[in-house]
Amino acid sequence: MIWGAIGWDYKSPLVFLEKEPDDKGITSKAYLHQVLEPIIFPLFDRLGPEYYYMEDSSGVHKKFARKAKLQHSIHGFSWPPSSPDLNPIEHIWRYMKEELKKLPFPPLTQAALKEEIQHIWDRLTPEYWRHYIARTPCIIEDVIKAKGGPTTN
User: Fold this and answer.
1) Nearby residues of 152 by Cβ (< 8 Å), 6 or more positions away
2) In terms of residue numbers, what domain contains 52?
3) Which of 61, 70, 83, 136 gets the most CB atoms within 10 Å of its CB?
4) Which residues of the chain are modeled with pLDDT < 50?
């Protein structure tokens, strides 16, 4: 599982989450230890309580992670489980997948794949995603008008 975050003038480090000892896969504990504690909590300590943290309804964002976010006064929303038009970073993930498809030779190892993904992430600048963030209020209005259904924008 890969994690990254964007803001108007912000791009987080890219995190390739790893299974915690004794866990069967990526869990909310891994998300807490590898993303929230080292990256998000310090960021929100600097930003303050007027900022919101957007994440989807993935299971890793719950349990240990939810409690820790509440303890750090990090506010979020209850987003639909699959909301690509509501979450600007979904456009980034789609772009990154398309860039991987353009490679002349597919990476043959996990390490090579991670390296290519990191290169793509490193090349991205805020100019690429700002318009997606700026359009979010309009998109939310469209989703409300469509009563949660598909939108035309």
Assistant:
1) 142
2) 2-145
3) 61
4) none
pLDDT tens for 29-67 read 999 999 999 999 999 999 888 888 888 878 888 888 888
Give the model's pLDDT for residue 32: 94
8 Å CB contact between 56 and 81: yes
Does residue 35 lie within any of the structural domains? yes
The DSSP secondary structure of 90-136, one letter per residue, reads HHHHHHHHHHHHT-SS---SHHHHHHHHHHHHHH--HHHHHHHHHHH
Going from the C-alpha of 43 to that of each of 50, 51, 52, 64, the distances in angstroms are 13, 10, 11, 19
Tokens standing for residue 85: 């038009």
Does residue 73 contact residue 123 with C-beta atoms inside 8 Å? no
Task: Provide the 8-state DSSP code for 60.
Answer: G
| Cα–Cα dist 114/107, whole Å | 9
Tally of domains in the chain: 1
Q: What are 100's two structure tokens?
A: 């991987």
Does a structural domain hold residue 153? no
Answer whether residue 27 is part of any domain.
Answer: yes
Q: How many residues does the chain have?
A: 153
Specify if 78 maps to a domain.
Answer: yes
Tell me the whole-structure pTM to 2 decimals. 0.87
